[in-house]
């Protein structure tokens, strides 16, 4: 019996030593590595893989794929060209399977797709610096449940309170709406809204303001996994077949009323703004027509703004809106955006009716890269004369 225990003891020591040796042989992998010149190196360990590549939004318009090369130690690697200051998303492809980078713990969800992220910044004035967390006063980001009598639901939204919010003075409010497939987490996670606002406010470029980011899907109470329907697979059309008691636009003042009753807000028209991207831009388009005296600033970003040619009610709503003289009706879109034609028609309509608006156009398409830019520009235009 003693011999048996001695054997087991020797075997355990041998096994532990072998495991430690194997562990020591596995190279330590860091990925991504952002270099001072803006180049970025990706590394991935898998000595059994046959083909590995990295795909990311490294170009202005279309995603690019870079083949990786296997080193003798089993690490696959590739280095990009110098990249501009920006927040980038990427994933790996290992023998035909899309995977996230196991060496990078920073991951975003866009509808049902997970992607790794990293930031390139070269100086304090660039976009990368604006999108990262800097040593400045920080606002508070909260997930808040509110009652929507119009929809008959308890619903969730994200609320950003600026660092200066102390419960005494009143603040203007920007209502910021997501696009199709998004939810109340989209602008804070993918859009870097809190980092942008912290940095703009700290730099004196934006007025301290509350930013409200609601869920724009009236058939869903909250983001996937955060309401009673559980951990369903998000696909951008969840539960649409159920219908809703009202549209997002019709129920929107439930959000405004909750914010005004629970936070120290300046409830005047000149202290309210609403903006949105894609579907949220369409919601903004409708909210402006339904409540023309409630908001003074409107931002349509890559907006799904559908005209109603010959519709007398629509024309009357638009006339009433612009007769009320909003301080800013702002349209922004990328040259390659698939909604460009819709926005061209909108501008023709506004021009033909001599309705005043401002227009911003840049390169790129229907991308978060552009929407972060639009938020940055729009926020600096708000509430400057309060």
CATH class of the largest domain: Alpha Beta
User: CATH superfamily of the largest domain, please?
Assistant: Alpha/Beta hydrolase fold, catalytic domain
Distance between the termini: 88 Å
Question: What summary fits the major beta sheet?
Answer: 8 strands, mixed
Provide the domain count.
2
**Global outline:** globular
What's the alpha carbon Rg, rounded to whole Å? 25 Å
The percentage of residues in β strands lies in 25-35%
In the CATH scheme, what's the topology name of the largest domain? Rossmann fold
Considering DSSP H and I runs of 4 or more, what fraction of the residues is helical? 25-40%
Helix-strand makeup class: alpha/beta
Mean pLDDT rating = 93
Q: How many helical elements?
A: 9
Which spans have pLDDT < 50 for at least 5 consecutive residues? 1-24
CATH architecture classification name of the largest domain: 3-Layer(aba) Sandwich
Order of helices and strands: HEEEEEEEEEEHEEEHHEHEHEHEHEH
The total strand number stands at 18
Give the strand order, joined by hyphens, for the main sheet: 11-12-14-13-15-16-17-18
């Amino acid at each position: 019996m003693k011999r048996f225990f001695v054997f087991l003891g020797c075997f355990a020591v041998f096994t532990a030593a072998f495991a430690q040796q194997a562990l020591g042989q596995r190279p330590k992998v860091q990925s991504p590595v952002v270099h001072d010149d803006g180049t970025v190196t990706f590394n991935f360990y898998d000595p059994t893989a046959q083909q590995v590549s990295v795909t990311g939004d490294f170009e202005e318009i279309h995603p690019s794929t870079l083949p990786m090369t296997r080193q003798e130690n089993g690490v696959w690697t590739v280095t990009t060209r110098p990249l501009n200051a920006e927040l980038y998303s990427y994933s790996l492809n290992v023998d035909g399977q899309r995977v996230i980078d196991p060496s990078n713990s920073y991951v975003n969800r866009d509808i049902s797709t997970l992607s790794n992220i990293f930031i390139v910044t070269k100086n304090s004035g660039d976009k990368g610096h604006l999108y990262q967390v800097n040593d400045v006063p920080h606002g508070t980001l909260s997930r808040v449940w509110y009652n929507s009598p119009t929809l008959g639901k308890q619903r969730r939204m994200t609320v950003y309170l600026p660092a200066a919010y102390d419960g005494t003075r009143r603040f203007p409010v920007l209502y910021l709406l997501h696009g199709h497939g998004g939810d109340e987490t989209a602008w804070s996670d993918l859009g870097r809204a809190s980092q942008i606002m912290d940095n703009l406010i700290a730099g004196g470029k934006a007025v301290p303001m509350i930013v409200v980011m609601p869920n724009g899907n009236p058939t869903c109470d909250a983001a996937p996994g955060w309401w009673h329907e559980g951990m369903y697979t998000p696909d951008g059309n969840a539960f649409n077949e159920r219908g809703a008691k009202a549209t997002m636009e019709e129920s929107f003042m439930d959000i405004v009323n909750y914010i005004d009753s629970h936070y120290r807000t300046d409830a005047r028209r000149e202290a309210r703004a609403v903006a949105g991207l894609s579907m949220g831009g369409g919601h903004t388009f409708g909210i402006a027509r339904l409540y023309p005296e409630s908001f003074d600033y409107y931002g349509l970003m890559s907006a799904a703004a559908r005209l109603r040619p010959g519709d007398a009610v629509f024309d009357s709503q638009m006339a009433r809106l612009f007769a009320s003289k909003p301080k800013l009706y702002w349209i922004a879109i990328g040259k390659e955006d698939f909604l460009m034609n819709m926005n061209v028609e909108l501008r023709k309509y506004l021009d033909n009716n001599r309705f005043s608006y401002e227009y911003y156009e840049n390169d790129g398409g229907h991308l978060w890269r552009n929407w972060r830019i639009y938020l940055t520009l729009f926020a600096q235009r708000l509430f400057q004369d309060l």
